[in-house]
Amino acid sequence: MPTHAYVPHAPGYVDNDGPKIVTSRFPHEDSFTLARAEATGAYDGLRAALDKKPADVHGEVREATVLGRGGAGFPAGVKWGFMPPGKFPYYLVVNGDESEPGTYKDRLLMERDPHQLIEGCLIACYALGLAQCFLYVRGEMALAQERIAQALNDAYAKGYVGKNIMGTEFSVDITLTWGAGAYIVGEETALIESLEGNRGMPRLKPPYFPAAIGLYGQPTIVNNVETLANLPWLMLNGAAQYKTYGSEASPGTRLVAVSGHVQRPGVYEIEQGVTTFRDLFYGDNFCQGIREGHELKMFVPGGGSAPWFFPEQVDLPLEAKDVGAAGSMLGSGAIIVMDETTDAVKAALRLVRFYARESCGKCTPCREGTTWEERVLQRILDGEGRPSDIDMLLDIADNISPGPYPNAADPAQGLDAVPFPPKQTTICPLGPSSVAPITSTIRRFRHEYEAKITKRDSIPVSAAPVMARAMEGES
Amino acid sequence: MARFSDTNLSIAHDIISRYPRPKSALIPLLHLAQEQDGWVTDDAMRHIAELTGTTPAEVKGTGSFYEMFKFHPVGKYMVNVCTNLSCQLLGGEELLDHAEQTLGVKAGGTTADGMFTLEDVECIAACTEAPCLQVNYRYKLRISHGEFDAMIADLRSGKSTDIPEHGTLAQTRQAIPADRGAGIVAPELARDAPVWLARNDVADGGDSKADA
Questions:
Q1: CA-CA distances (angstroms) from residue A87 to A82, A159, A191, A423, B141?
Q2: ipTM at complex level
Q3: In chain B, what residues touch A162 (CB-CB under 8 Å)?
Q4: Mutate which of B55, B196, B207 to disrupt the A interface (most A C-beta within 10 Å)?
Q5: Which pTM was predicted?
C-alpha cells in the first residue's frame, strides 16, 4: 500500500486477548461485507430475539444492565422503559455523530462492522415496537456512510430489513441520514432537531425527555452506536453470560480510545470496572507505557468534557462509579494522555477553543463565556496576560457552571471544586464542558499560568504596542 | 446551473420519500446540491425550499449552521487539518503551519489555481493516528511533512485517483426498495401499535408494556 493512500480498512483498533463482545469481527479485513458477517454469525442474534416476545427482549436488556456508551452511561433498558405506552409511532434514532475530542470508537464500529449495528437496531425496534429507525452518521465520516449504505442495501436485499423480516410480522425501515459538521448535534435533542431539518440546537429538558416527546413530538429512543452493537451478542449469549464480564455496577466491555503520548495508542476493548488506567497505560496488552524517556503529567479520562486526572488517579479502575467519585467521568471512552513536555495552559486553550467554536449560541453564558475563556487564555499564552486573568477565568467558569458542587470530590485528591455532576446555567452540557480543562489546570498548575503572566511584567505595559509598531516599521 | 439536474431531481425525490416529513430531508438535499455544484448556491436553496415545502430562509437558516456547507466556491480538494488536542500533542499545529507554507494560503483560504482549500478543523475522530487530516473527507493518517508535500504534488498532477471530488460524500447511496420497504408514513397517519407487539398480549393476557 502506498504510504499516503486512502486507507481501505480503518486502522486504530488493537487486538488483544481480552473478551470480545463488539469487536469479534474486527480482525477480518472484509468484516464489513455481508458475506463475512453472515459467516461469523451476523443476524443470529436477531433470529434469537424474534423467537422471544418483545417484552422478554426488553427484559433481557434490562437484566443485563447495558449501560449507554455515548457519554452519560445511563442503562439502556431503563431508558427504553421511559416511553409512554400507546403513543405510537415510536422512533429509534441512532447517534453516530461522534466528534468529542479524543473519541474514536463509533467510527470504527460503523466502518468495520455495520451489520452488527444494523442488527442491534433491529433488536431494539423489535423489543419496543419502534416504527422506524434513523441512523444519523457524522457528516465527515464518508467511509462509514458508504459502508453503512452498502450494508443496508445488502440487508434489504436479503430480507433482514424492511417488510416481514425473516418471514415474521416484524417490519421496520432503517434510513441512513448524515449530518454536516456540528459537534453539538451529538447531544440527543440537538440530533433530533437536526433530523427534523432545523439548526442543531439542544432542547430544554426536563420536563420532556426525547423518550416521551422526541422526533416529530413522538416518543423517541436515542441510542449510541456502541450501545446497540452490544445487543446481538447479548441476544445470543444471554444476560447472565454478559454479566460475567466487567464489574457488578458496569457489566460488559467497552471500547476506549487512548491517544496522545503513549507508546501504542489505539482503540481497545476492555472490561468495565476491571481494567485500571495503569493497566491501560503501562500494560503490555495495551499501550505499553508513556513514550520513551517521558513520564505522565496528566490525562483526560473521558473525552474533552471530563475534568482531568493526574498521576495519583492512575490506579482507578475504568468504572463510572469510581471515576465519578474522584471528580470526573468516563464519558465517551476517550483518553488523552499527556507527558511532562505538555504545556498545561496550551492544552487547556486547545480544548476551550474547541468548545468556543462549537457552541451553538443558544445560551448566552456558553456563547459569550467560551469565547471569553478562549480570548483570556490566548492572551496569557501570547505573553499579554494580566495578574487578574486567573481569577477572571475562574469567574467566567463559575458563570457557566456555578459552584459549590454538591458532589465535590474528596479535597485530599486535589480536585475539590471539580464540577461533577456539573451545575449549569445552560441548556446542554457543552458550556460546562469548557470549564473542565480550565479548572483542572488552574488548580493543579497555577504556577504555569503565573509564570506566563509574570514573564510579561518585565515589559512596561505601554511599551508593547510601541515595540510592535517599531518592529513593523523595520520590515 | 444550480437547480437540480434531472438525475439529481429524481434522487432528491427519493431522499424525501425516506422521511416521514419532507423537511427532514433538508441536510441530505443540501449535500446533494453541494455535490452537484461544488458549493450551495442561492438557486439550489430556492429549489430545495420548493421541494420540501419550506422557505429559502429556512433552508439557509439550517444550512448555515453546519460547517460542511460552503456558500461560496471552494477548491477542488478540501484539505482539513486537525489541530485538536490529540493531534496537537503529536504535531498537528506544526502540520498546519507546514500546509500553509506548502499551499501558500492561510487556513480558510483557497489556492490561486482553485485546486485546494485549506481548513483548520476540530477533531475528526482519528485521534490515535495523530497527526491526521482529511482530503475531501478521506483520511490521511500519521502524516509527515514530506508525505504531505508528496500528496499535494500527486493531487496537483492528477496522479492520485483515490480521492473523489469535493462534495462526493456517499458514492453508494442507500435505496429502500419499494417492494421490501415497510412503508414510511407521517406520524399523524400511523397511530396504531405495530402488529408484532401483540405477541406480548398472547401469553400475558395484558399490556406488558405498561409496566416497562
A1: 12, 28, 21, 33, 47
A2: 0.90
A3: 176-177, 180-182
A4: B196
A5: 0.89
